[in-house]
Amino acid sequence: MALTPTLTLWEVEYKGSNPDELKKGIGKAAEQLKAFSRAGGQILFGTDLGYIQRFDTSEEYVWMSREGMNFQQILASLTTNPARRFGYSTRRGRIAKGMDADLTVLRVDPAEDSTAFSKVRYTIVGGKIIYSQK
After folding, report:
1. Which of 60, 65, 66 is closest to 11 using CA atoms?
2. What distance in Å separates the CA atoms of residue 28 and residue 34, rounded to the nearest whole number?
3. CA distance 42 to 19
4. Which helix (H) or strand (E) holds 123?
5. Mean of all residue pLDDT scores within the chain
6. Which of 17, 43, 55, 76 gives 20 to 30 Å between its CA and that of 86?
7. Pairing state between β 103-106 and 128-132
């Protein structure tokens, strides 16, 4: 079993409704994330891109951090956890000899700022730069 929290979806779904209901709903979801994480559950980062028009993932990282996930756990939700879950762990999800050369280079240290994962400098797939922030 794995959990993909997408906590920022609550703001979209509850838009225009009672702010107390929104706070209560997102609070329960956040508590579930915290409990699942503390129990050692596998967390996969995800977005609802395509369903919602929010492209900035930084708020999701803030929520994950706020609920007790450290930067290593958030990183795992983006890398090793999905690679394991979907059967790619022999080729993807970590940096090691013989692995695919897929990397994301951040502009900021995620140990210092949980939103760093949304501040991408380069994306490298198969050893080739496919995205570069100027």
Report:
1. 60
2. 10
3. 30
4. strand 120-125
5. 90
6. 55
7. unpaired
In this prediction the pTM is 0.87
Domain count, the chain: 1
In this structure, what are the phi and psi dihedrals at residue 113, rounded to the nearest 5 degrees? -150, 115
Residue 124, number of CB atoms within 10 A of its CB: 15
> What is the rounded distance in angstroms from the CA atom of residue 76 to the CA atom of residue 16?
34
* Strand 2-3 to 42-43 pairing: parallel
| 13 has a pLDDT exceeding 80 | no
The three-class DSSP label of residue 128 is strand
Give the structural domain span for 58: 2-132
User: What distance separates the 2 farthest-apart alpha carbons in the chain?
Assistant: 53
Q: Tokens 């996930």, residue?
A: 69
